[in-house]
Design goal:
It is a single chain. The chain is about 5% helix and about 60% strand. The chain is mostly beta strands. The protein has an eight-stranded antiparallel beta sheet. The two termini are about 20 Å apart.
Length: about 150
C-alpha cells in the first residue's frame, strides 16, 4: 500500500539481488495512473544493514478528470478561465470527460526490510514528466508498507 500525493497499491518483483520491477496503480485528481519502473536497491544505507537506497527509472500513464485536475491551478494563464486557449484542451468546467497523459518518471528513496516479520517500510519521491500536457512535470511522494511473499 502507498500513501501520499498519489495513493494506491504496488507490486514489486526482484529480478536479481539488487534489481526489481515495480508496478503502481494510484489515484490522484479524480483519476488513475499506472506506473512501471525498474529499480536498483543498494543495502546498507546510512550504515543500517536492513535499510536500502532505492533508485530507478520508469514510465507512467494517467487518465484524469479535466475539471478536478486543473481546478486549483493558479499559475501563469490561470486555467480556471475557460476562455484561456492554452488551457481549453484540458480544463472546461462546462465539459465533462477526462484526458490521458503519458510520461517518464524517476524514483529515489529508502526502504527498510524487517528481519523477523515479512514487511518492508519505505519512503520515496517520484518526479515525473508528462509529454502530452501543458503542465509537464510533477512530483509524488509516498510512504509505503509492503507485505513480502516468499
Amino acid at each position: 500500500m502507498r500513501g501520499g500525493f498519489t495513493s494506491g497499491v504496488s507490486l514489486k518483483h526482484f529480478t536479481s539481488s539488487r534489481g526489481a520491477l515495480e508496478f503502481v496503480v494510484g489515484s490522484r485528481w479524480h483519476g488513475v495512473s499506472i506506473s512501471g519502473m525498474y529499480q536498483m536497491h543498494q543495502s546498507g544505507a546510512l550504515g543500517v544493514p536492513e535499510l536500502s537506497w532505492v533508485y530507478g527509472l520508469g514510465a507512467r500513464v494517467g487518465h484524469y478528470d479535466r475539471y478536478y485536475y486543473y481546478y486549483g491551478y493558479r499559475g501563469p494563464g490561470n486555467c480556471q478561465d475557460p476562455n484561456n486557449p492554452r488551457c481549453y484542451p484540458y480544463y472546461n468546467r462546462y465539459r465533462t470527460g477526462g484526458f490521458t497523459a503519458v510520461g517518464l518518471l524517476g524514483i529515489g528513496g529508502l526502504e527498510y526490510k524487517f528481519k523477523d516479520i515479512p514487511f518492508t517500510l519505505g519512503i520515496d519521491l517520484i518526479p515525473y514528466f508528462y509529454f502530452n500536457h501543458w503542465g509537464g512535470s510533477f512530483i509524488d511522494g509516498s510512504i509505503l508498507v509492503r507485505y513480502i511473499l516468499k
